[in-house]
Structure prediction request, 292 residues.
Amino acid sequence: MPHIVKSTIIDAPTAVVWSVLRDFNGHDHWHPAVATSTIERAQASDKIGCVRRFRLKDGAELREQLLALSDLEQTFSYCLLDTPIPMFNYVAHVRLLPVTDGDRTFWHWESRFTTKPEDATALTRMVAEEIYQAGFDAIRKHLKEAA
Amino acid sequence: MARVYVSTVVNARNDRVWQRVRDFNGLPNWHPAIAESRIEGGEPADKIGCVRDFRLRNGDRIREKLLGLSDYDMFCTYSILESPMGVENYVATLRLTPVTDGDQTFIEWTAEFDCAPDRETELVNNIGGGVFQGGFDALKRAFGG
Prediction:
């Protein structure tokens, strides 16, 4: 089962990073791969179980469900329900931890999924680089522009 | 119960940092406040349950017991058996986590303990801002930032 782990340091307090990341429907405002996003059935984006339906810039449509969200731990987890690519049982976890030395943020993003063996390497690379690493870089830019 | 949490980022891969801090008897090699250390009873320093008896540069003596050590998850948990600090039920953990973006290491050092209520702020500041941060600063110097 492919296991992806990516992490970075963001030069802002966890409260600032969390205020952007905790909105499960907000990724179209900052992630370069996401064009539009809505929460199904007009539910709140912090209601556990809500589903975000979003379109990537390449036209692909995906649905993901919020499994857990904690303002205390500054974590959330979600799974993929529908995607046009052969990824199954995808569950991801996002976690922020304070770097007290300099009031910065450690951001950990990890996931596991199943797929056909011949697709594992390419999909792992795609998610790690185009989704997670690109997301790190985008948040860094997003926070700089907001400042 | 009082709680200490401090964390930092060191500019080196986690396996290199772990090599430096995993030796439960190795504090004098990297922590500037520690003068000397020995493991009681001639036990190996990575035997769970072993006790380190060490002396700080200010003369204080502390005995600590190794409760947990994982080379896989890169953490070390220990308790204080004897110290002049006036703390009870003191348990601390030093944990390393890789930062994949730039090959750095995120280090967390936490402690929980009981103490007299009027001493809590002073102890939390001394342990977190003094002892733990002092260790971080030494590691950052050793690994160039």
